[in-house]
Amino acid sequence: MAKLSMPAEAAKALSIRESVLLFCIGSGLDRTKAGINDAVVTGVVVKGLADRDAAGALTLTDRGRAVLRTMLPDL
């Protein structure tokens, strides 16, 4: 399991592709059209920011939502 940090620190540590993946999951967009591959998904899941639901779709964890909110402070 990845070391837990504050959402702002976690947001700064994300790669661009990981950030885009969080946006895709949060907005319901198709990650493959954004060029996000399975390796990026695995990294975000290992960091505890996303998980798969019973149907296999990616969903944000509570931590993932907090990081996404940190990246979008005006929303």
Write the layout of secondary structure elements.
Blueprint: H1 7-13, H2 16-27, H3 38-46, E1 50-52, E2 58-60, H4 62-71
Antiparallel strand pairs: 1-2
Helix pairs in contact: 1-4, 2-3
What does this structure look like?
- By secondary structure, this protein is mostly helical.
- The chain has one domain (7-71): Arc Repressor Mutant, subunit A, CATH 1.10.10.
- The protein contains four helices and two strands; from the N terminus they run H-H-H-E-E-H.
- Helix 1 crosses helix 4 and helix 2 packs across helix 3.
- The longest helix has 12 residues, at 16-27.
- The chain is globular and about 30 Å long.
Short structural summary:
The protein is built from 4 helices and 2 strands. With 75 residues, the chain is mainly alpha-helical. The model has no long low-confidence stretch (mean pLDDT 92).
Helical amount: 40-55%
Give the name of the CATH architecture: Orthogonal Bundle
Low-confidence stretches: none
**H/E series:** HHHEEH
Largest sheet, order of strands side by side? 1-2
Instruction: Give average pLDDT, whole number.
Output: 92
